[in-house]
């Protein structure tokens, strides 16, 4: 298959990245990060989550962050909403696009959102109906598509069934998450082949955590399957609070470097992106997870 000529990068650092930071991060610092990412040319930024603050304390200020960011026309500022309560809070905060999140593994579903896979899917139906009435688009996530921290192996057919349901109920795009980063290219391609039997490839995205250093090769394998949307996180921030040992998403800087080298367009400015990454790492007092940023720092 010919490789895509344009890739859409979904910046999940402010949500998937920061949700896992133990130290408090001020609303002002989160706003500064989102604004810097907007300035770098990202077309989609996942700003926060409307989840229980008891479950994920770091996302508690998401409504304030939404109130203070500078929204650039044409850029999508999304948020996670696990249930109707979260959806209503998101709408009240002026969110125009939400994401619902399911898992391909029962154990992970229970640990992450305290219900079974089928209960979670049933919960999403009224959210998507209400979203349609408000003119809000809904993205869907499937976690643990290449392995589960509790169950180990996850079958590609199970991933395909959950993705199929999310797509059928109205998610305009389904992001397939290697939550614990254990996948390798062969498994990645097999997983996409199973899912594309039910969901068109142009409606799918890849979401790779880099825990085992496999994220970029898995993105390359996905490109070979015709996938042209990838989630990534500035400076490789993050992990998942309900997936022990999960490290950050693949760093946006590193994905951009690879795509630039391959002549694949994204509309993102590398220098501005590096500045955004450097700034948030200074705020957090942590070393960047981006290899490109490290190389540029010398
Ligand atoms: P629950 O305890 O079953 O919910 O949690 P409940 O309905 O029984 O409510 C319990 C309490 O939570 C009540 O408060 C509710 O009001 C409150 P109390 O009466 O005890 O004071 N509550 C809420 N508060 C704020 N916002 C809400 C909300 N809903 C209920 N929306 C629930 C169920 C889904 C709420 C909980 O499990 C939860 O919030 N989970 C979120 C987990 C999460 O955010 N995980 C990280 C994101 S997923 C991820 O990172 C994977 C991804 O990146 C892809 C990949 O890498 O694979 C997307
Ligand atoms: Mg994730």
From TrEMBL:
Keywords: Lyase, Metal-binding. Residues 7-274 form the Pyruvate carboxyltransferase domain. It comes from the Bacteria. The keyword Metal-binding applies. Pfam families: HMGL-like (PF00682). GO terms for molecular function: lyase activity. SUPFAM superfamilies: Aldolase. Belongs to the HMG-CoA lyase family. This is Hydroxymethylglutaryl-CoA lyase. It comes from Pseudomonas kulmbachensis.
